[in-house]
Specification:
With about 150 residues, the chain is α+β, with helices and mostly antiparallel strands. It has a domain at about 50-145: Nuclear Transport Factor 2, Chain: A. The chain contains 5 helices and 4 strands; from the N terminus they run H-H-H-H-E-H-E-E-E. It has helices at about 1-25, 50-65, 80-85, 95, 105-110, and strands at about 100, 120-125, 125-130, 135-140. Strand 3 (about 125-130) and strand 4 form a beta hairpin. The termini are far apart.
Length: about 150
């Protein structure tokens, strides 16, 4: 009888250990290649540039396509390695800090005013809301095929 209780307790202990490790999967650091840096599945949807802002940006872009400012011209497109480093809620790395261009006044007037210490800037074909004090990227508007 004691052997039966011991075997039952051991089996239950093994079940509890393997069950808890199954629940823990996917919660460790580094799981999923990139720690969700790009906001794929866990993005909370807190965007600064709302839909109407995006429409205003596209309207401005369509009107100025023939004479785009530095930072939005085709030649200013980021190489893939730098493109991956431009992420929401991430710190702007030094390689991208060198590529910051001011946002044109005509476009700036169509966007909501940025909070204090923040600025709308152009980086490699993107409009970025950037915290100037911490270099944290708050939001990004990607100019992709419209």
């Amino acid at each position: 009888m004691k052997a039966r209780k011991w075997i039952l307790a051991s089996g239950l202990g093994i079940l509890m250990l393997t069950g808890s490790s199954a629940f823990a999967q996917g919660n460790g650091k580094g799981h999923g290649k990139g720690n969700n840096k790009h906001g794929d599945a866990d993005d909370q949807g807190t965007y600064y540039y709302e839909h109407h802002d995006q429409e205003a940006i596209w309207g401005w872009y369509d009107q100025n396509q023939k004479h785009l400012p530095p930072g939005l011209a085709k030649k200013d497109k980021l190489p893939p390695g730098l493109e991956k480093q431009l992420v929401r809620r991430g710190t702007l790395p030094p390689g991208l800090q060198k590529r910051i261009q001011p946002c044109p006044e005509a476009l700036e007037r169509q966007l909501p005013p940025p909070p204090p210490d923040y600025a709308n800037v152009l980086i490699g074909g993107h409009i970025v809301l950037l915290n100037r004090q911490t270099n944290i990227v708050v939001d990004i508007f990607h100019f992709e095929v419209h």
